[in-house]
């Protein structure tokens, strides 16, 4: 039981964020109206994705040092989970964009770069499929993963700041926290972020355990 | 033998091999020239925005062809031989320097021919030249490492494109922005951000390549 406290914490936080996200009062703003509630779902997806990809890079570095096949499974499973969160982030963003910007894909820089960042990780998975030998696959894909990570950081955090974007906080738009992330919304937003990160980590550990059982029974 | 002299010898070997066959330079040069000519025949006259984008697309494919051969071309036996006598650092540095030399030469010739054929001169030609040199620098550092990864993975050409496109897109976006400034003849202080970002990306890629290549090389 004492090992499970973080899983309970994650579930409670996500439950709380979902219920409070739909029921709590939010500031009434033009254009955004009630869609502002999507903040509790759209943004945490990206945080969870970044955390999972960082975990993956951490284990990729470990693979290079230890050549442990379990570390390789950890690296690939966290990428798999991260991609799911990335796709969810894009989908929730598109729904939000449909109602506020007028169309689901507005060719906003952040939308485009997020899609390209996902392409990087699809390329990582394709690279894994291209190599048959297990040891070699672990090593080469770990190298590509570490090589791609700084590029993803540039894509998601540096380049959008150089261009105009429809997202808040870019291109002359005021950031969210300046007017609408008031203290009431923060009470839901921060728990939502933490909760989704924990849930993402949980899914990743489940996938990892599944894959390692598969691997052991295959031997 | 210390690193500097190893790099010198390996670079000399690359240049000598190239000079004897002149395959890479002539082949890629012909590729670029014919692509530019085909583009001219199909577009005839273009607006400045298309002119710029077209140039970078042509250079992207030409440089993938030019740089990808650097590792894919080496036979297994020669790789083993170099592995026994030289350090991996010397190898990746020499390959990168050779590719930079090749790419800079290629890009400058291509730019001259492109300007000649389309009869269009950017307003700020020196800045455009700086941008193309920076572009060929980034193309060579990134593609050298990716070609090393894809050559180790086995099936070359296809994987090379899949792995390198998501990595090169951020660089390409910055390059197109920088060259557009040059075409519009904006004040040079506007472009300092982009130049700095490109240099940072190059340093980052070089550092990551140097750290990772020894692991990749050791089979």
UniProtKB/TrEMBL annotation, chain A:
<keyword id="KW-0472">Membrane</keyword>
<dbReference type="Pfam" id="PF01578">
    <property type="entry name" value="Cytochrom_C_asm"/>
</dbReference>
<dbReference type="InterPro" id="IPR002541">
    <property type="entry name" value="Cyt_c_assembly"/>
</dbReference>
<feature type="domain" description="Cytochrome c assembly protein">
    <location>
        <begin position="27"/>
        <end position="158"/>
    </location>
</feature>
<feature type="transmembrane region" description="Helical">
    <location>
        <begin position="82"/>
        <end position="101"/>
    </location>
</feature>
<dbReference type="GO" id="GO:0005886">
    <property type="term" value="C:plasma membrane"/>
</dbReference>
<comment type="function">
    <text>Required for the export of heme to the periplasm for the biogenesis of c-type cytochromes.</text>
</comment>
<dbReference type="InterPro" id="IPR003557">
    <property type="entry name" value="Cyt_c_biogenesis_CcmC"/>
</dbReference>
<keyword id="KW-1133">Transmembrane helix</keyword>
<feature type="transmembrane region" description="Helical">
    <location>
        <begin position="143"/>
        <end position="162"/>
    </location>
</feature>
<feature type="transmembrane region" description="Helical">
    <location>
        <begin position="40"/>
        <end position="61"/>
    </location>
</feature>
<feature type="transmembrane region" description="Helical">
    <location>
        <begin position="113"/>
        <end position="131"/>
    </location>
</feature>
<keyword id="KW-0812">Transmembrane</keyword>
<dbReference type="GO" id="GO:0015232">
    <property type="term" value="F:heme transmembrane transporter activity"/>
</dbReference>
<protein>
    <recommendedName>
        <fullName>Heme exporter protein C</fullName>
    </recommendedName>
</protein>
<dbReference type="GO" id="GO:0020037">
    <property type="term" value="F:heme binding"/>
</dbReference>
<dbReference type="InterPro" id="IPR045062">
    <property type="entry name" value="Cyt_c_biogenesis_CcsA/CcmC"/>
</dbReference>
<keyword id="KW-0201">Cytochrome c-type biogenesis</keyword>
<feature type="transmembrane region" description="Helical">
    <location>
        <begin position="188"/>
        <end position="207"/>
    </location>
</feature>
<dbReference type="GO" id="GO:0017004">
    <property type="term" value="P:cytochrome complex assembly"/>
</dbReference>
<comment type="similarity">
    <text>Belongs to the CcmC/CycZ/HelC family.</text>
</comment>
UniProtKB/TrEMBL annotation, chain B:
<keyword id="KW-0812">Transmembrane</keyword>
<protein>
    <submittedName>
        <fullName>Heme exporter protein B</fullName>
    </submittedName>
</protein>
<dbReference type="GO" id="GO:0016020">
    <property type="term" value="C:membrane"/>
</dbReference>
<keyword id="KW-1133">Transmembrane helix</keyword>
<dbReference type="GO" id="GO:0017004">
    <property type="term" value="P:cytochrome complex assembly"/>
</dbReference>
<feature type="transmembrane region" description="Helical">
    <location>
        <begin position="128"/>
        <end position="150"/>
    </location>
</feature>
<feature type="transmembrane region" description="Helical">
    <location>
        <begin position="49"/>
        <end position="68"/>
    </location>
</feature>
<feature type="transmembrane region" description="Helical">
    <location>
        <begin position="104"/>
        <end position="121"/>
    </location>
</feature>
<feature type="transmembrane region" description="Helical">
    <location>
        <begin position="23"/>
        <end position="43"/>
    </location>
</feature>
<comment type="similarity">
    <text>Belongs to the CcmB/CycW/HelB family.</text>
</comment>
<dbReference type="InterPro" id="IPR003544">
    <property type="entry name" value="Cyt_c_biogenesis_CcmB"/>
</dbReference>
<keyword id="KW-0472">Membrane</keyword>
<dbReference type="GO" id="GO:0015232">
    <property type="term" value="F:heme transmembrane transporter activity"/>
</dbReference>
<feature type="transmembrane region" description="Helical">
    <location>
        <begin position="197"/>
        <end position="217"/>
    </location>
</feature>
<feature type="transmembrane region" description="Helical">
    <location>
        <begin position="156"/>
        <end position="176"/>
    </location>
</feature>
<dbReference type="Pfam" id="PF03379">
    <property type="entry name" value="CcmB"/>
</dbReference>
């Amino acid at each position: 039981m004492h090992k499970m406290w973080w899983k309970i914490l994650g579930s409670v936080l996500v439950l709380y964020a979902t219920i409070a996200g739909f029921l709590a009062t939010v500031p009434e703003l033009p254009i955004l109206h009630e869609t502002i509630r999507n903040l509790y779902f759209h943004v945490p997806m990206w945080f969870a994705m970044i955390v999972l990809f960082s975990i993956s890079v951490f284990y990729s570095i470990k693979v290079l040092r230890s050549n442990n096949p379990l570390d390789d499974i950890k690296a690939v499973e966290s990428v798999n989970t991260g991609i799911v969160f990335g796709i969810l982030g894009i989908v929730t963003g598109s729904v939000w964009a449909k109602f506020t910007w007028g169309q689901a894909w507005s060719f906003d820089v952040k939308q485009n770069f997020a899609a390209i960042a996902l392409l990087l990780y699809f390329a990582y998975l394709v690279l894994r499929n291209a190599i048959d030998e297990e040891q070699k696959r672990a090593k080469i894909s770990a190298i590509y993963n570490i090589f791609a990570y700084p590029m993803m950081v540039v894509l998601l955090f540096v380049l959008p700041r150089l261009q105009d974007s429809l997202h808040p906080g870019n291109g002359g738009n005021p950031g969210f926290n300046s007017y609408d992330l008031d203290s009431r919304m923060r009470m839901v937003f921060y728990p939502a972020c933490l909760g989704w990160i924990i849930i993402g980590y949980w899914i990743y550990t489940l996938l990892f355990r599944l894959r390692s059982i598969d691997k052991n029974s295959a031997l | 033998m210390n690193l500097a002299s190893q790099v010198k010898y390996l670079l000399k070997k690359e240049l000598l091999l190239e000079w004897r066959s002149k395959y890479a330079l002539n082949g890629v040069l012909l590729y670029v020239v014919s692509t530019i000519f085909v583009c001219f025949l199909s577009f005839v006259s273009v607006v400045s925005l298309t002119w710029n984008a077209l140039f970078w697309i042509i250079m992207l494919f030409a440089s993938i062809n030019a740089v990808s051969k650097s590792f894919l071309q080496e036979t297994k036996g020669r790789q083993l031989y170099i592995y026994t006598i030289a350090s991996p650092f010397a190898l990746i540095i020499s390959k990168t320097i050779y590719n930079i030399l090749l790419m800079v030469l290629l890009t400058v010739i291509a730019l001259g021919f492109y300007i000649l054929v389309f009869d269009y001169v950017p307003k700020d030609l020196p800045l455009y030249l700086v941008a193309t040199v920076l572009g060929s620098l980034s193309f060579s550092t990134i593609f050298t490492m990716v070609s090393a990864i894809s050559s180790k993975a086995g099936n070359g050409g296809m994987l090379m494109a899949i792995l390198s496109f998501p990595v090169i897109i951020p660089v390409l976006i910055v390059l197109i922005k920088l060259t557009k400034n040059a075409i519009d003849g904006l004040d040079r202080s506007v472009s300092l951000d982009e130049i700095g970002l490109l240099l940072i990306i190059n340093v980052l890629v070089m550092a990551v390549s140097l750290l990772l290549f020894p692991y990749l090389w050791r089979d």
